């Protein structure tokens, strides 16, 4: 249930299109036309990072002529979570943000509680953004969160895309908002920004102190049952002790550099995938082998992953071991029949093509 937020707002004029380089999204539109630019929402849990972000938004937005609101998500995972969400809403309103509200979500079990909570949270934020016609949703992830993400990726043996951490900006394709009028059920893109990725947690706590804001410390953030908490409270401090200060900053810097590399490789793979597609009746995706085998492995495996996902294999369960097996159909062909893929799919080699379809 979305409390306090109005059921819908027409999209405001302005937004990122046509703004001068380096200017905040929507700022130019507000000043040039005298009309409000698209609304910006802050996602706020009440913790120091997101509370500092909400405070900064409340300070900056009126000076740029940008409407600004905030939303907090009640995951319902702790006793008294509803009252906590109400307290966060009151704090956000006191900051001058408008509209503000809370969203109660039901957290499932698929992929573990952390993943399920994240999925429920983003779905609720998508809905709020679309209902309010928001230009962007701001997230309070910091330099420390980025370092933790990279370290978790290293522990899983992930590739460059995973090790590039959290992007400062990304877009999600969201379902139509719950209050969408009949005939407007196609959904839309929701833009997310992480403006605090270059700042550490100590800075956000100092910012809250300077603004007279009292952050809430979620007990889950100190529960060693969660892998990320162990990375935060045990692994990173141990690395700092063994290697010296600066590990957190170095991991975040590594993420930024790897993201630049991964972006280039992804672009090359997208072009190759478009060139090599060769439709085959009875299969969701078919790729020509003649151009595939000669690609650098870093590009080729990205093409294979894109083909598998396009065919319907769930990205979250499509692992490197699956892509490696498909790659052997291209580079180490010994008459293998097919490779099973998540989602009830298979990849097989036939008549000069690599084919992806149902088993």
Features:
359 residues, four-stranded antiparallel sheet, 15% strand, alpha/beta, single chain, seven-stranded mixed sheet
Describe this structure in words.
The structure is a single chain. The protein has helices at 27-33, 48-64, 81-94, 113-132, 143-156, 160-163, 201-211, 227-243, 247-276, 289-292, 297-311, 320-331; strands at 2-3, 39-43, 68-74, 100-104, 134-138, 169-174, 188-193, 285-288, 339-341, 345-350, 353-358. By secondary structure, the chain is of the alpha/beta class. β10 and β11 form a beta hairpin. The longest helix is centred in the last third of the chain and has 30 residues, at 247-276. The radius of gyration is 23 Å and the shape is globular.
Number of helices: 12
Bin the helical content: 40-55%
What is the 3D form? Answer: globular
User: H/E order of the elements?
Assistant: EHEHEHEHEHHEEHHHEHHHEEE
Mean pLDDT: 86
Q: Total strand count, please?
A: 11
Question: Which consecutive residue ranges, at least 5 long each, have pLDDT under 50?
Answer: 6-36
Strand content: 15-25%
Tell me the span between the first and last alpha carbons: 41 Å
Rg over CA atoms, rounded to whole Å, is 23 Å
Largest sheet: 7 strands, mixed
Structural class of the helices, strands and pairings?
alpha/beta
Output the strand order for the largest sheet. Answer: 1-4-3-2-5-7-6
